[in-house]
Amino acid sequence: MKFNTDEVNQLIQTRRSVFPRDYTGEKVDDAIVKQMLENANWAPTHKFTEPWRFVVFTGEGLKKLAEFQAQCYKDVTTARVTFQEDKYQGLLIKPMESSHIIAIGMKRDQKKGLPEVEEVGAVFCAFQNMQLTAAAYNVGCYLSTGGITFFEEAKPFFGLGEEDKLLGFLHIGMPKGALPPGRRNPVEDKVKWVN
Ligand SMILES: Cc1cc2nc3c(=O)[nH]c(=O)nc-3n(C[C@H](O)[C@H](O)[C@H](O)COP(=O)(O)O)c2cc1C
Which of 68, 97, 127, 182 is most buried, most CB within 10 Å of its CB? Predict the structure, then answer.
């Protein structure tokens, strides 16, 4: 198959994180979200463990996520004496600003045949496939690793066990307008060639 390499390069470089404040409120077509998930499933995977797991929240599901994450935050931070009311209120309302939210998890291989870092790496490859697919359809998204992402207590709600990891929440919505320019330091600063 022949690809338009200029378009591929452009897709990768012009993809931007688009945040809920820049969503129109319009619903993203489920078919596009399904395509994002399908492409996620084609991420590279060492020993074919396919460790990515997704829970898609939309419609009433966003309210269920909001209620769960706010309560989970309250329970955990009250016990740790770090509770902040504004964070709690944010967790209670923010999910409804997105069309869909995909909770992204890593399911640890039962045999633990690979170092955990490889399994986490594969899941982030899947996440990038979703981001690029969204960009190709002019759909906005961004990954949040805040809130309850790293709370052990949150994992069962997303079907994850003790050895698994919750890695973040992909927020999805229709972008309001043009995307901002990207910002990166030159790749040459991060590469050494050995000839
Ligand atoms: C692993 C990872 C975690 C991230 N977590 C957050 C986050 O918690 N909050 C946030 O605002 N953006 C988060 N982002 C998105 C970054 O802010 C965004 O990728 C960065 O600003 C570069 O912008 P670009 O994606 O438009 O190139 C995360 C991105 C990655 C790859």
Answer: 127
Average pLDDT, the chain: 98
Establish whether residue 169 lines the binding site of ligand 1, counting it when its CB lies within 6 angstroms of any ligand atom. Answer: no
- Atom of ligand 1 at shortest range from CA of 182: 27
- For the CA of 131, the nearest atom of ligand 1: 25
Average of pLDDT values for 154-180?
Answer: 97
Our answer on whether the CB atom of 71 is closer than 6 Å to any ligand 1 atom is no
| Spacing, Cα 85 to ligand 1 middle (Å) | 24
Say yes or no to pLDDT of 1 above 90.
Answer: no
Indicate if ligand 1 lies below 6 Å from the C-beta of 13.
no
* Cβ neighbours of 144 (radius 10 Å): 16
- pLDDT, one tens digit per residue, over 22-32 is 999 999 999 99
| Single pTM value for the model | 0.98
